[in-house]
Amino acid sequence: MSYAIGQRWLSHADSELGLGIVVELDGRRVSVHFPAVEEERTYATDNAPLTRVKLREGDALHTRDGRKLQVLAVHEEQELLIYEVAGEGQRELLAELDLDDHIDLATPRQRLLASQYDGHAAFALRMATAEHLHRLQQSGLRGLLGTRTALLPHQLYVANEVGKRHAPRVLLADEVGLGKTIEAGMILHRQLLSGDSRRVLIMVPASLQFQWLVEMRRRFNLQFALFDDDRLMESGEGSNPFEDEQLVLCSTDLFLDPTARALALDAEWDMLIVDEVHRLAWHRDSVSDEFRFLESMAAQIPGLLLLTATPEQVGLEAHFARLALLDPERFHDFAAFEEEESQYKRWSSLTDALDRGEKPQGLPADIDPEAAPERQVAALLDRYGTGRVLFRNARASVGGFPTREMQPHPLPAVDSPVYQHLYPDLHVDTEQWLQEDPRVAWLVSQLKALRPEKVLVICAKADTALALESYLQLRAGIRSAAFHEQLSLVERDRAAAYFAEQEQGAQALICSEIGGEGRNFQFAQHLILFDLPEHPDQLEQRIGRLDRIGQKERIFIHVPYIEGSAQETLMRWYHEGIDLFRSSCSAGDMILGEFKESLEEQLREQNGAFEALLRDTADFTERARKELSEGRDKLLERSSCNAEQGQALGTAISDIEDPDTLGAFLRELCDVTGVEHEDLGDSSSVLRRGEQELLEIFPEVPEDGCTVTVSRDEALAREDWIFLGWEHPWMENAMTTVLGSALGQASVGAMKLKGVPGGSRLYELLFTVSLSAPRALGLQRYLPLAPQRILLDASGRDLSKLLTHERLNERVEKVPRGTVSKIVRQLREEIETRIDDAEAQFAGELETRQKEAAQRYGEQMDEEIARLSALRAVNPAIREEEIENLRLRKEAGLVALGTARSTLQGVRLVITR
Ligand SMILES: Nc1ncnc2c1ncn2[C@@H]1O[C@H](COP(=O)(O)OP(=O)(O)OP(=O)(O)O)[C@@H](O)[C@H]1O
């Protein structure tokens, strides 16, 4: 190519010089001025390391006066280029002299033509990154990968079912300790990654704030900001502190303050999560301020997750009131709801009959009698069960829990009527009570006998816990800690941590009832119920502290009681009437409702009718259990978990996570970009920032390095290591940084290829498809965004199938830099033509993909809209808003599909030797 004064050239030997201008021509020498560095260089014309900069139609250009414009056409006059560009509102002509002196070669084509190329490892990394990103996106498992959790089918099923919904509104009511926090975390993670939710508020009882904060961080890499009164005060006049953070966690108590309530209502949220929601008091005649606040929040926030293990702890009507928060249209008539509950058995027998392959009578008219039985069952559950709103897994169906052993400890009666009460300590002076109550001395000797086993002691009241703890500590020399509502949050967490400490920690933690909800103490095997709570569900909550996921050993439940007292009466009623110490029961509230009066009478003073009460309770319990297990619980079990699907999700996650592939990719990533890594094993390594990093892919790696693992199993065993799964924010950042950079965009190499004469050329190109649509539309499932590799020879023949990328990688070798620029200069035209060919080839392919996607997407959306509309006719659990939303999604999706664009990600020129 010949030179002319005023032309713009780039030095491929030293791209730091920026874009030069030919200023002098003198026979065989050319002088170029580089304004960016204010230097002038002179080269021999026959081997100057210079590349002519010639932009193309569609390229972006930057002007000297800082404007970014798009090239519409390129003209040449007297060897100088004139760019026709889209200026402000009109076309404009721009001489190449006006190009910015700091050039940024943005496309692989430009970089290859300017001989700005990288080694093969960088090209291969770029290809691998594009392919992995695509694989992850289209897996349908987004949000479920990379969380530090064991793959438990019941949780995966719920997380997948709810997580994929738009603005999900559900009650997560798994039995105690089955992992509702984890389910909520997975749903949230999924919603955040899909872009469905951005701003989230979590409200939990004060005693659980820290636990939630830690669980969200260590299991999901979600950093919540903890809000308390002080944090609310910090914000300046007129600004809303809740708007400063995207993810906010706070105690429900914070909203006792009307200002806090007003601020939270004023902020915009996508999702609200409320733990232990049964604690927000609701009664037909008196609704608490907290509940009213929740009602207002629920009415304006699209996504709502309510969590409780004991939905009926404060009665069926309160349970109904919470369902009404989720879906006021569906749950508006309590009497009708009670009536519906009585129908559950009917639907349950129908689903059973369908399962057995029968053709049962009495199928509702809207269920297609000719449809496959699985579809009929799904439709029944969907339309007539509590399917869409309520999820409740039972430990009996989840399985794998250890057995519970109840050990009653009768203690001699005391000669004072006070000790006939359930809670004698409320009626006597503390000092006197500590001396007189035989349970106190028993507790001391029991703890000594159990040493060094960890023991959780639960009693109803904070004052009891306080008195017992100081007695144990000061007078009996037992290492213990107290946990009750009179302690500050920090003190409570400190007490729980002291108890958890294996070597030097407390042997016993003495909790009031608040210790009985939400906390994790599954490292202990012994539970002492110093007294008993008045509601069966509270007893369930207490036992659930130990009997929860992660408990591997048999659990011992010790119940001391004074013989002949109300304590014995209540213990026997729970034990012989409901068998509650050994197995959980979802009918607790119903049973209590039935026998409350008779029980209270017996608790005041046991009489001859007690044995009959026990028998009646046992009979009622058996019937209730049977009825529920055949009706409501059975339907719930079916809609809360499809074990097969849960299992399949687990397998699919393991397959896609594949630590071997991830480990190899991580090593490649570090090697190419210059991050130091020291491998500790197949799946773990220490990462350190390298001295000469090409790209900042892991900006958050600390100065002195950190240990990471790519294996979920290892991550569960080593909580101090970072689980660098595919969805870890570091990994996502690393991958998008690679693709967003110029690294590996252009590469040149040589190889020997049998039967192919030396000097032949191969062009390997990689295209990706991008879709500028909200992630929440989920269009990736319809439009294959798979990257496409195209391999052409010098004449444009497609060799993609004949010679794989891997084979090229194995054989390709370096070519000296000087030689490359000469070759590139000679092949300039061929390079341009082959890239054009490949672009045209892929544009055709993309058009076909788009057409097919639009058809599939349209059909599926129509089907879904029709299905939901039909469902809505029989099951008002489906909101009109959901259907309207689907219609809008369909339209938006079809428009967005048309905007898909292809991008040339990389090009490699291989010359045969
Ligand atoms: N998939 C999982 N992988 C690892 N640990 C888990 C998993 N699911 C639950 N856990 C652990 O099991 C315990 C119980 O889980 P979680 O606190 O979520 O239960 P919950 O149903 O909310 O309990 P509660 O009914 O007491 O409120 C916690 O220690 C939690 O970290």
From TrEMBL:
Would you indicate the residue range of the signal peptide? none
- Residue intervals of the Helicase ATP-binding domain: 161-329
Which part of the chain is the Helicase C-terminal domain?
439-618
- Tell me if Cell division is a UniProt keyword of this record: no
Q: Which residues form a coiled coil?
A: 821-848
Which InterPro entries is this protein grouped with? DEXDc_RapA (IPR057342), Helicase_ATP-bd (IPR014001), Helicase_C-like (IPR001650), Helicase_RapA (IPR023949), P-loop_NTPase (IPR027417), RapA_C (IPR022737), SNF2-like_sf (IPR038718), SNF2/RAD54-like_C (IPR049730)
Q: Which UniProt keywords apply?
A: Activator, ATP-binding, Coiled coil, DNA-binding, Helicase, Hydrolase, Nucleotide-binding, Transcription, Transcription regulation
One Gene Ontology biological process: regulation of DNA-templated transcription
Binding, ATP: 174-181
Q: Name one GO molecular function term.
A: ATP binding
Hydrolase as a keyword of this entry, yes or no, is yes
**Pfam families listed in its UniProt record:** Helicase_C, RapA_C, SNF2-rel_dom, Tudor_1_RapA, Tudor_RapA
Q: What EC number(s) does its UniProt record assign?
A: 3.6.4.-
Task: Return the HAMAP family for the record.
Answer: Helicase_RapA (MF_01821)
The Swiss-Prot or TrEMBL record describes its family as follows: Belongs to the SNF2/RAD54 helicase family. RapA subfamily.
Please name the NCBIfam families in this protein's record.
Answer: PRK04914.1
Protein's job: Transcription regulator that activates transcription by stimulating RNA polymerase (RNAP) recycling in case of stress conditions such as supercoiled DNA or high salt concentrations. Probably acts by releasing the RNAP, when it is trapped or immobilized on tightly supercoiled DNA. Does not activate transcription on linear DNA. Probably not involved in DNA repair.
Under the subunit heading, UniProt states: Interacts with the RNAP. Has a higher affinity for the core RNAP than for the holoenzyme. Its ATPase activity is stimulated by binding to RNAP.
Protein name, as recorded? RNA polymerase-associated protein RapA
Gene, per the UniProt record:
rapA
